[in-house]
Design brief:
The protein is 42% helix and 18% strand. It contains eleven helices and eleven strands. The chain binds adenosine-5'-triphosphate.
Length: 319
């Protein structure tokens, strides 16, 4: 193995740049040549590939987003698209790849491995919805962004004695809502992994009001409902002077936290170790604070499990 390629694919996440940098730095240390591939699998097929010079990486560890850009390119699910990508790898003499993205991207990565180009995947997504990893790159930054926003909303909720429904991202996973809810002392957390009973929530809010605690934050995972819809349903159960707020895409951006940078660095470093051992088709994770790997196909059969102890704990805090 002499030349490796790196691409980012699917939804962007803070810390992707730190991961690219780590992969490249470790690769240079091993005497490898490194190529950046722009726009994920779309750029691979289009040949948007360039040598990644060391200087390019200098200011990247602290930058949000991905300087290799990301794109969705469904055509890569077809063999035709994959073969076009292989042609480009041959043209540039790239022997192996690192793909940073979500589980969709892992499918693309596995196809490349099956075509003889060892590819290792790093979990880059704010949703934390990838199996066999306790945390994904970007989750911690998005969480801190959500917490910062909710703390601000709490101030105005307190001033006006209002109930705020705050929608956070996470797709079908409740992780962002669970962690942000606990971290901001939310009076209720609503996640796709658990059913909710609006009647009970309304009764809880009424009881709080009687006890003199007359503002509340409901942290809602986007996988359940929109903040507006949830608020409309809540309003049918009582007058809470409620407001709906969606934090939105700001959760996808921003300077990555130290935790995300370190996680990205460890995972990027490990990706090169696996490739040097001639391994591919593997997804890297962090489990019980150790960097691990699993065959990608195992991830497709497995579901991510949110930490629902947080949910139960938060309910007890608000009993
Ligand atoms: P996120 O969860 O953050 O959105 P993701 O990696 O799951 O990230 P997807 O849009 O599902 O995002 O996939 C990213 C890209 O991976 C697709 O646009 C496509 O190029 C490639 N891809 C997805 N599924 C497959 C597949 N079955 N076979 C080959 N390539 C695929």
């Amino acid at each position: 193995m002499k030349k490796i390629g790196i691409l980012t694919s699917g939804g962007d996440a803070p810390g992707m740049n730190a991961a690219i940098r780590a992969v490249a730095r470790r690769a240079y240390a091993e005497g490898l040549e490194v190529y950046g591939i722009n726009y994920g699998f779309a750029g691979l097929v289009a040949g948007d590939i360039f040598p990644l010079d060391e200087e390019v990486l200098n200011d990247k560890i602290a930058r949000g987003g991905t300087f290799l850009y990301s794109a969705r390119y469904p055509e890569f699910a077809k063999v035709e698209g994959q073969l076009k990508g292989i042609e480009q790898l041959k043209k540039f003499g790239i022997d192996a790849l690192v793909v940073i993205g979500g589980d969709g991207s892992y499918h693309g990565a596995l196809r490349l491995t099956e075509h003889g180009y060892n590819t290792v995947g790093l979990p880059g997504t704010i949703d934390n919805d990838i199996p066999y990893t306790d945390f994904t790159i970007g989750f911690d930054t998005a969480l801190n962004t959500a917490v910062d926003a909710i703390d601000k909303i709490r101030d105005t909720a307190t001033s006006h004695r209002r109930v705020f429904v705050v929608e956070v991202m996470g797709r079908n996973a409740g992780d962002l809502a669970l962690w942000a809810g606990v971290a901001t002392g939310a009076e209720a957390i609503i996640v796709p992994e658990r059913d909710y009973d609006m009647d009970k929530i309304a009764k809880r809010l009424e009881r709080f009001r009687e006890e003199g605690h007359d503002n509340a934050i409901i942290v809602l995972a986007e996988g359940v409902a929109t903040a507006a819809d949830f608020k409309a349903e809540l309003d049918k159960h009582g007058d809470f002077d409620s407001r709906a707020n969606t934090i939105g895409h700001m959760q996808r951006g921003g300077v990555p936290t130290a935790r995300d940078r370190v996680l990205a660095s460890k995972m990027g470093n490990y990706a090169i170790e696996l490739l040097l051992q001639g391994k591919g088709g593997l997804a890297i994770g962090i489990e019980d604070n150790k960097i691990t790997h699993h065959p990608m196909e195992d991830l497709f059969d497995e579901k991510h499990h949110a930490d629902l102890d947080l949910y139960d704990m938060n309910n007890k805090f608000n009993q």
